[in-house]
Amino acid sequence: MEKDKIFIISLGEIEDFSLIYLKETLEKIFPYPVILKKGNKSLDFAYDQKRGQYYSPFIMEKLKREVPQNAIKVLGVTEEDLFVKNLNFIFGQAEIFGEVSLISIKRLREEYYNKRKNDSIFLLRTLKEAVHELGHSFGLNHCKNSRCVMFFSNSIIDTDNKSYKFCSICEKIINRAFKSIN
Question: Is residue 172 a contact partner of residue 148, using CB atoms and an 8 Å limit?
């Protein structure tokens, strides 16, 4: 079976409109069809009671064991707040050239920052983080260009300041990755 699809796996209750937006937009950015799939409703196995957050590497390991046969990449999407050791939180995680990536949409919402709900800001932030993590899975490292989607987001301000697009250097690298896969 050919590995030729990107799967978005919702982990828990995620609004359909955000998943559909991601599917439709990612299909314009990446040269693969995107499939929506429901995953685990509970991520209790990754919950850290002391921090009140979910340990991302545990979720990544679970995703790795559930990769569909025809998946070139998997993007897990959760509402839960994620962390890794030595960081207060993360927007997402991926391994360079890995099969799976993961984003949390919790801190991408304006309401998290005690601001009025704004779906357009939320969707754009979600897209940026999804493209960023998928970029890692296709071989891209962090970029020094603060406008490139591959720039490291240390805060929501960094996410807001960057584009959802790759800079010209990252675009060349990822296009080479696509050609080597196909």
Answer: no
* pLDDT tens, residue by residue, 149-172: 999 999 999 999 999 999 999 999
Q: What is the pLDDT of residues 6-62, one digit of tens each?
A: 999 999 889 999 999 999 999 999 999 999 999 877 899 999 999 999 999 999 999
Which among 64, 138, 157, 56 is positioned nearest to 104, based on CA atoms? 56
The pairs formed by 43-48 with CB atoms below 8 angstroms and a separation of 24 or more are: 43/11, 43/12, 43/78, 43/80, 46/80, 48/83
pTM tops 0.90, yes or no: yes
φ and ψ at residue 135, rounded to 5 degrees: -55, -45
For 181, residues 6+ apart whose C-beta sits below 8 A from its C-beta are 72
Q: Amino acid identity of 72?
A: I
Residues marked active site are found at 133
Radius of gyration of the chain (CA): 15
Question: Cβ distance 137 to 100 under 8 Å?
Answer: yes
Assigned token pair, 43: 């991520």
